[in-house]
């Protein structure tokens, strides 16, 4: 068999591409959105003889080989050689007298090049009308030039009947208004004929058309169909003898016997006889896909990448040239072909026993874990209830943290800040990157949980710049954990005496004193119910980034009723009110006493107990009694000028008054705060007198302090006690 040079060049060009081809090189691939695969083509040398497609206005592909303009919807090569086209509906209309007023017989011939056949398996004849018989005629054999006496090989038709306009029903095509019938194979042309009787005014026209099965559903309204309507039709095509009258069948067997050139030019392609008329088509052999009409058009199918329904494999799939293998992986086997039967583990009895025991142990471990989880959950719920969770969970502005959530916040207590009154204090970071301090509260029981919850509720609502904000709590622990805002500079104790000690100016110390007084004043005058702190000391005055003081550690604080007698006195000796020590009576003036002790530390820079066993309160009060001044004990760092000394004198005098033995002689926190604020104001405007050491005498404040003696004309009597760490006081008879 001789191949032309042009054909060999085409083969070389196609071989250079890796994917399967559907169109010849340099040929138009589509028209109006419709793919044009070879043997179809547009233009010279782009199509197999008889398969030319014309692209009208570059928007609509048509079959030029047919009579009339036949629009192409789709062209397929594999797996089934088909062309989908649009065919006009044939019609005939009548007047009231029953005479025809117009018609279109829908004549079309697809066989000018002997390529196409109307598919008998995918199309059907449909007739619409009332009292109508319509049929299609194909393959004219005699008198073809005279339609009245022409004879045809094939006749197919059906009859419709209508009694009235309501007879026809949507979706029903069984003879009333609509009928349908299969068509014979091998026909390549079509001509419709109509015969009618007893015309009905409600159905003036009859219609007939060959249509793709499944694409048309009858509607009663179609008895008045538009005369320009077209329907989709499927055509079978094949490589045939171009002479329509030739008796040669051009089968695959004849091609093989004659050693003739076949249109099946691709490797892995094969010839298959046409199922609708003479001729043959080409297919890619099993395991390949693509276009068998082009050199190297059939390419290997990767069956493993396709859906398992198409190429089944219940084991491990491996693609091979033209096929695929399916095997079980190591340690598995199939009872038959793995393509159809699943692969199961190939276990020995020992392996099965080992797996069974392992699964049993695993299930036991899981069961134990579930039991532990349930027990732990019940324990956490019990602690939550014991610590007042049912009450606190509804408090607005108070966040309830879970035990696990608190561990995440503190990174499992990885950064210790210090020790509070009831335990260690840890640094934490909330999800929004807010830094917090987490510390233990008092231990709660069934008898005290309501009171504890009420106090926590009050504390969460204390919003003041000089009170450490309570953000939330964790109740799923034995001792509730409280979450507070973070004070970056630690406590006043650290700044004055500890490892964070730094120089504090007199103005800054005065600001700290005023801020602390304001915080205590807010607690004492809280609008819902007054609160007393009970443990005021430098350790419990925290300082933020700007050294703004914040009253903290409310472990001993309590709501103030008319009076409160404590059976157990707990706190730091040197700051506890001696009256409270002796009687167990805790009042707001107890906080005033403790604040007076803090003021002494601010102006002297000395600890409450200094030089091993010296009491700051005792020494300062003795000095003040003897000399009516505490100048000798002032911190030299802040006593630089006469103005400084004057301010320190006034603060010392105020501290001595706060430390008086008779609680009625002590000022309240409102007065303490106002006097400190006045000192700061007068210092800023430099109205410091040069005579009397009493600023308040100078500005005539004698009558504004609730008859409290603040002029310094009488000696102060401080209330002091020996230093110790704790003392229990039993007030019971």
TrEMBL record:
Keyword Transferase: yes
Domain Protein kinase per the UniProt entry, residue ranges: 411-679
Binding residues annotated for ATP, in chain numbering: 439
TM spans (from-to): 353-375
InterPro entries cross-referenced by the UniProt entry: EGF, EGF-like_Ca-bd_dom, EGF-type_Asp/Asn_hydroxyl_site, EGF_Ca-bd_CS, Kinase-like_dom_sf, NOTCH1_EGF-like, Prot_kinase_dom, Protein_kinase_ATP_BS
Renumbered residue ranges of the record's region Disordered: 710-733
GO CC annotation: plasma membrane
Domain of life (superkingdom): Eukaryota
Membrane-protein topology: Single-pass type I membrane protein
Gene3D superfamilies: Laminin, Phosphorylase Kinase, domain 1, Transferase(Phosphotransferase) domain 1
Keywords from the named record: ATP-binding, Disulfide bond, EGF-like domain, Glycoprotein, Kinase, Membrane, Nucleotide-binding, Serine/threonine-protein kinase, Signal, Transferase, Transmembrane, Transmembrane helix
Protein name: Protein kinase domain-containing protein
Originating species: Lolium multiflorum (Italian ryegrass)
Organism classification: Eukaryota, Viridiplantae, Streptophyta, Embryophyta, Tracheophyta
């Amino acid at each position: 068999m001789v191949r032309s040079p042009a054909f060999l060049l085409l083969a070389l060009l196609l071989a250079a591409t890796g994917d399967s081809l559907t169109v010849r090189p340099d040929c138009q691939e589509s028209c109006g959105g419709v793919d044009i695969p070879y043997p179809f083509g547009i233009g010279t040398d782009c199509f197999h003889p008889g398969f030319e497609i014309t692209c009208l206005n570059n928007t609509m592909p048509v079959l030029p080989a047919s009579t009339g303009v036949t629009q192409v919807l789709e062209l397929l090569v594999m797996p089934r050689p088909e062309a989908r086209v649009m065919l006009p509906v044939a019609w005939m209309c009548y007047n009231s007298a029953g005479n025809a007023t117009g018609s279109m017989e829908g004549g079309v011939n697809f066989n000018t090049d002997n390529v196409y056949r109307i598919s008998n398996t995918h199309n059907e004849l449909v007739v619409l009308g009332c009292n109508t018989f319509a049929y299609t005629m194909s393959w004219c054999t005699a008198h073809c030039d005279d339609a009245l006496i022409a004879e045809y090989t094939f006749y197919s038709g059906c009859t419709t009947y209508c009694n009235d306009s309501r007879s026809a029903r949507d979706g029903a095509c069984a003879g009333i208004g609509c009928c349908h019938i299969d068509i014979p194979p091998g026909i390549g042309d079509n001509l419709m004929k109509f015969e009618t009787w007893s015309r009905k005014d409600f159905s003036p026209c009859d219609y007939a058309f060959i249509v793709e099965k499944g694409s048309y559903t009858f509607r009663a309204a179609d008895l008045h169909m538009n005369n320009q309507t077209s329907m989709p039709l499927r055509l079978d095509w094949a490589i045939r003898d171009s002479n329509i009258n030739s008796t040669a069948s051009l089968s695959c067997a004849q091609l093989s016997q004659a050693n003739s050139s076949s249109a099946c030019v691709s490797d892995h392609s094969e010839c298959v006889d046409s199922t609708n008329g003479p001729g043959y088509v080409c297919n890619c052999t099993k395991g390949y896909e693509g276009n068998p009409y082009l050199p190297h058009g059939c390419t290997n199918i990767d069956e493993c990448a396709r859906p398992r329904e198409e190429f089944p494999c219940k084991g491990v799939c491996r693609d091979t040239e033209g096929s695929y293998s399916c095997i079980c992986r190591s340690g598995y086997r199939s009872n038959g072909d793995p393509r159809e039967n699943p692969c199961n583990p190939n276990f020995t009895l020992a392996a099965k026993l080992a797996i069974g025991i392992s699964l049993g142990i695993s299930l036991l471990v899981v069961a134990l874990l579930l039991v532990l989880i349930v027990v732990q959950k019940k324990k956490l719920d019990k602690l939550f209830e014991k610590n007042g969770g049912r009450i606190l969970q509804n408090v607005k502005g108070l966040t309830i943290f879970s035990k696990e959530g608190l561990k995440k916040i503190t990174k499992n207590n990885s950064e210790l800040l210090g020790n509070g009154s009831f335990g260690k204090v840890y640094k934490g970071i909330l999800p929004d990157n807010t830094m917090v301090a987490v510390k233990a509260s008092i231990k709660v029981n069934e008898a005290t949980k309501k009171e504890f919850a009420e106090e926590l509720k009050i504390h969460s609502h204390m919003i003041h710049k000089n009170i450490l904000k309570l953000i939330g709590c964790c109740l799923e622990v034995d001792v509730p954990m409280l979450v507070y805002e973070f004070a970056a500079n630690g406590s006043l104790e650290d700044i004055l005496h500890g490892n964070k000690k730094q120089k504090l100016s007199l103005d800054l110390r005065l600001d700290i004193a005023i801020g602390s007084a304001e915080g205590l004043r807010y607690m004492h005058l809280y609008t819902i119910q007054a609160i007393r702190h009970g443990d005021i000391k430098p350790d419990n005055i925290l300082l933020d980034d700007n050294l703004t003081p914040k009253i903290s550690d409310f472990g001993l604080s309590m709501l103030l009723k008319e009076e409160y007698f404590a059976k157990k006195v707990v706190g730091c000796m040197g700051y506890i009110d001696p009256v409270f020590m002796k009687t167990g009576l805790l009042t707001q003036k107890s906080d005033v006493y403790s604040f007076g002790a803090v003021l002494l530390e601010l102006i002297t820079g000395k600890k409450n107990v200094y030089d091993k066993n010296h009491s700051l309160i005792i020494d300062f009060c003795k000095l003040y009694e003897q000399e009516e001044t505490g100048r000798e004990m002032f911190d030299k760092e802040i006593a630089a000028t006469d103005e400084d000394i004057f301010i320190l004198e006034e603060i010392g005098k105020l501290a001595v008054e706060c430390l008086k033995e008779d609680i009625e002689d002590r000022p309240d926190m409102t007065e303490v705060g106002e006097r400190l604020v006045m000192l700061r104001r007068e210092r800023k405007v430099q109205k410091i007198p040069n005579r009397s050491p009493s600023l308040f005498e100078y500005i005539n404040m004698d009558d504004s302090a609730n008859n409290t003696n603040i002029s310094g004309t009488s000696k102060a009597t401080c209330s002091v006690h020996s230093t110790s760490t704790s003392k229990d006081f039993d007030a019971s008879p």
